[in-house]
Structures are given as structure tokens and as C-alpha cells.
Design goal:
27% of the residues lie in helices and 21% in strands. It is α+β, with helices and mostly antiparallel strands. A 7-stranded antiparallel β-sheet has the order 1-7-2-3-4-6-5, sandwiched between helices. β2 and β3 form a beta hairpin. The N and C termini lie far apart (34 Å). 37% of the residues are buried.
């Protein structure tokens, strides 16, 4: 059984929540190794707030890179069918020739850093007709005016996979606007697959626009 995706418990834990949601999205509950949960919580929330308070600046890029490598190594060592790839910079964009689009159409998921007032992590789970299906761990019951302005839909009808539907062009902006990836040099994403359900190019339908 796959469980509903979860929401962050605080203003700071979007990083670990998005990573654990990626695992929940890809794997049934009974298959998830507890070591993954322990390690995600152990190595995230590593940034200090402006006042020096631990964890109050969320999760760093270094921690996300480390965890992508740790998950890949753990899965190889234990034969758990999860694969991970960390990408950054110009490799992080939405559209034609995108690693992210390719991962989504092949049945994978992507944890991405984007902007939602501040830098924020969310999970991408699918795409079609110029839109990305996204699970944002920051709970909203309905769309805020800024979402409506950007053409972003908020839904609670798909708790196992997504709660936002976002146009492609929202992500690629280099500004610090809603759901933009921001400056190219600071972009990052983690691509994740269950290798048993990963589709090949021959099994997929081209949807890049």
C-alpha cells in the first residue's frame, strides 16, 4: 500500500519532507527501509538561522547532494531498487531536453529547490500538456491570489501524488518569484526512480512542449 504524501510539521522541514515524500510516492509502505527515514532526518535541517538557532534555515544544498549520494550507495549495497541522481545549475530546467521532464515521463520523481517566499523544497511527480504536477509540503486548503495570478491550481483531491498543477514557464524564471527555480547557479534537483517501474524511451510518449 502506498500512503498519502505528508505535509511539513514546521516552517523549516520542507527538505526532509520532500525527500521522504519521494520515497513514499515511489514505494509501498512495507518496502521502505527504516534506514532511509533515519538518515534523511539525520542529515537534513543542517542550516542555522540568522540568530544562530540550529535548523531554522532549513536544509542546505550540500546536505541534499550528500543524501542523493547516500541513497544511491545504500540502495546498491542493500539491493533496494531506488536510484538517485543529483543535478544542478543549467541542468535544472523544465521543457525540452530536460532531465526533470525525462525523469517524470519515465515514472520517476524529482525533489527540487524553488521559491515560495523563501527557498523551498517540493516534489514533482508528473507532467502533461505544459503543466507539472507538484506536491508542495506546505499545506494550503485553497489557492492564494498569487497562485491564481500565475495560473497555478491547488487541489486536495490527489493526496498520493500532487496538490498543485503548475505551468512549465513558472519554473524557469531566474527571479525569486513563486515556484521559480531562481538564479541558474543556485539551482538543484534530486531525481529518483523505482528501477522496477522505470520506463524506457520506447515506453514513453513525448510530451515536451
Amino acid at each position: 500500500m502506498k500512503i498519502p504524501l505528508r505535509y511539513q510539521m514546521s516552517e523549516y522541514d520542507c527538505g526532509p519532507t520532500a525527500l521522504l515524500n519521494a520515497v513514499s510516492y515511489l514505494f509501498p509502505r512495507r518496502e521502505v527501509p527504516p534506514e532511509i527515514i533515519r538518515s534523511v532526518m539525520l542529515y537534513t535541517l543542517d542550516c542555522y538561522g540568522m540568530d544562530g538557532t540550529a535548523c531554522k534555515a532549513g536544509t542546505s544544498r550540500m546536505a541534499m547532494m550528500y543524501l542523493a549520494n547516500w541513497l544511491e550507495g545504500f540502495s546498491r549495497a542493500t539491493k533496494f531498487p531506488l536510484t538517485c541522481q543529483y543535478i544542478s545549475g543549467r541542468a535544472v530546467h523544465i521543457g525540452a531536453h530536460s532531465y526533470i521532464n525525462d525523469a517524470l515521463v519515465r515514472g520517476g520523481a524529482a525533489v527540487v529547490r524553488l521559491f515560495y517566499e523563501v527557498e523551498h523544497y517540493a516534489l514533482l511527480t508528473g507532467a502533461s500538456e505544459g503543466h507539472i504536477y507538484l506536491f508542495d509540503p506546505y499545506y494550503l486548503a485553497e489557492a492564494e491570489p498569487e497562485f491564481v495570478q500565475e495560473g497555478i491550481a491547488v487541489t486536495l483531491a490527489h493526496p498520493h501524488s500532487y496538490n498543485r498543477i503548475v505551468p512549465f514557464d513558472v519554473f524557469n524564471r531566474e527571479t525569486q518569484e513563486l515556484y521559480a527555480f531562481g538564479a541558474v547557479d543556485s539551482r538543484e534537483a534530486v531525481l529518483l526512480f523505482d528501477e522496477r517501474t522505470r520506463r524506457t524511451a520506447d515506453d514513453t510518449i513525448e510530451y515536451f512542449i
